[in-house]
Amino acid sequence: MVWENIIIFAPKILRMKKIDFVYDIDEHEKFFFSLLPEHLKRKYAGLKAMEGGYYGVSQVSKKFCIHKNTVRVGKNELIANVVPLVGRVRQKGGGRKKNFSC
Q: For residue 65, what is the enclosing H or E element?
């Protein structure tokens, strides 16, 4: 008796309309981009610029609100197959110098 109820209601659950599969890809892509660390943002922007063709760098820089040079650096890193340092986001020695006036 329980099995019959499942068979009766299952086709109603599985019916989906075409409108259920429409997504705002740009919005989700910007959200995904905001979650990435710095070096992966560069590489992802460079990859998108490669997909964009001739005007790819300027389109990606406007879309993600980053500088064109950042997109170009990411593109060049992908072309050169640059692997980031393991366990570090920035290179050693980068950033603000420590204040030793204690």
A: none
For the record, the structure tokens of 39 come out as 């070096």
What pTM was computed for the model? Answer: 0.66
Boundaries of every domain in the chain: 22-80
Cα distance between residue 70 and residue 102, in whole Å: 37
Give the other-Cβ count within 10 Å of 46's Cβ.
Answer: 23
Provide mean pLDDT across the span 67-75.
Answer: 95
Q: How many helices (H) and strands (E) does the chain have?
A: 5, 0
Residue 5 sits at φ, ψ, to 5 deg, of -65, -35
Query: Is the distance from CB of 41 to CB of 30 less than 8 angstroms?
Result: no
